[in-house]
Design brief:
The protein is α+β, with helices and mostly antiparallel strands. It has helices at residues 13-52, 58-72; strands at 82-84, 92-94, 97-102, 108-113, 116-118. A hairpin with a 5-residue loop joins β3 (97-102) and β4 (108-113). The chain is elongated and about 75 Å long.
């Protein structure tokens, strides 16, 4: 009986399928994780800028937020960013935006993000 021996450097069908599954998983993971990373960057931006509201005018804070949102390529307009100030409470910066993730083959997934930044109690707000 002759057994077929694989040649050096060749792959079996099972190995090719395994590599394809790993490659597709990495692709999907990167496509799905990128919007989350940007969301956390926007949320951190809001937390940092809400602290600046104590010493900087609101227009200056809005300009800084707009500049950083443009750098991050986040589809959040500065008009959709709300700065909320209520008597006796720490100020809050929040907004809502959505990101569509397009995959090969026409599949689309939509994220809806609601970043929010509130000044911590250690920032001196009472």
């Amino acid at each position: 009986m002759n057994k077929l021996k694989s040649q050096k450097g060749s792959f079996s069908l099972g190995e090719l399928i395994f590599l394809a599954v790993i490659g597709i998983s990495i692709y999907i993971g990167i496509m799905m994780a990128t919007p989350w990373v940007r969301f956390y960057q926007v949320q951190e931006l809001f937390k940092n800028e809400v602290i600046r509201l104590k010493v900087a005018p609101e227009e200056e804070v809005r300009e800084a937020i707009n500049k950083k949102l443009t750098e991050l390529e986040v589809p959040l307009s500065i008009d959709d960013v709300q700065i909320i100030r209520e008597e006796g409470k720490a100020p809050v910066i929040e907004g809502t935006y959505q990101v569509d993730v397009q995959f090969i083959g026409g599949y689309k997934y939509t994220y809806i993000f609601k970043p929010r930044g509130e000044a911590p109690k250690s920032a001196g707000y009472s």
